[in-house]
Amino acid sequence: MTRRVFRYVPFTIEQDQTAEPEYEARCVSGDETECGAESGTHRDPGPVEEWQRRRTQETGHRRYRRNFGGYAVMRPPAELAELARLTGGTA
C-alpha cells in the first residue's frame, strides 16, 4: 500500500497577463423562447456593449446574457518557487 501525504500550499490565483480576455453577449429577450442573437467574441467590452445598444434600438430587446472569459495562472508562494528553481523541480 502506498501512503501519500498532501500538504496545503497557499497558491494565489492571478489573471494570465499573456492571454487576452474575451467578451460576448447573447440576446435572451423573448416570452417563450430566447431571441438568441449573439454579439460575437471580442477582446474588449466596448464592441459588445455597442452591439447591445444597437440591438435594443433596432428590436426593443432589453435582456442580455453577458460572458467574460479569461485565463488564470496558479502561482505558488515565492519560497516554494525558489526551492523548485534551486532543485530543478517545478512549483
Q: Which word captures the global form?
A: elongated
Task: Indicate the percent of residues in helices.
Answer: 25-40%
Instruction: Tell me the structural class.
Output: alpha+beta
Biggest sheet architecture: 2 strands, antiparallel
Number of domains: 2
Distance between the termini: 27 Å
Low-confidence stretches: none
Strand portion: 15-25%
Number of helices: 2
Instruction: Give me the side-by-side strand order of the main sheet.
Output: 1-4
Q: Average pLDDT, to the nearest integer? A: 87
Number of strands: 4
Order of helices and strands, N to C?
A: EEHEEH
Output the radius of gyration.
22 Å
Keywords:
single chain, 91 residues, alpha+beta, 2 domains, two-stranded antiparallel sheet, elongated
